[in-house]
Amino acid sequence: MKLNELSPAEGSTKNRMRVGRGVGSGKGKTAGRGVKGQKSRSGVAVNGFEGGQMPIYMRLPKRGFTARNSKTHAWVNLSRLGKAIDAGKLDAKNVTEESLVAAGLVRNVRDGVRLLAKGDAPKNLNITVTGASKAAIEAVEKAGGKVTVTGPAKDAADE
């Protein structure tokens, strides 16, 4: 078999219908669009239009809003940090956001990494992150470690 001998399976393809090419073609005159009205014209996209009835997206109630200045942090739990350190993927003496990505604990940094307190803190952990919960900081310091938070300082307006 050669490339020039290849052809599609019988009945798997159809020729496209050429519309508006005379009455004898079977799709002449109105080209299958019916008669008159907005949809029979070209350049029409009436998505969500319900013929003058109030469209469903306007009838249903809206809730909440999305803040334009919101941040999306990647987060990591103390238990996952402990497992990675035990497996030798991380060095407990110097954990940074870049080392967390390299170890596969965080997929990408986004607006920073936030440390959360789920699980037991590894011993003598020295970690630098954008943010951390109070419970996580307390747990790490109780286990003899240190958390450095590099996140943006809280303004008086934020409180």
Structure report:
The protein is α/β, with parallel strands linked by helices and 159 residues long. The chain has a domain of 76 residues: Ribosomal Protein L15, Chain: K, domain 2, CATH 3.100.10.10. Helices cover 18% and strands 11% of the residues. It has 4 helices and 5 strands. Strands 1-2-4 form a 3-stranded parallel β-sheet. The longest helix is centred in the middle third of the chain and has 9 residues. The relative contact order is 0.11.
Give the structure's gist in a few sentences.
18% of the residues lie in helices and 11% in strands. The chain is built from 4 helices and 5 strands, in the order αβααβββαβ. This is Large ribosomal subunit protein uL15.
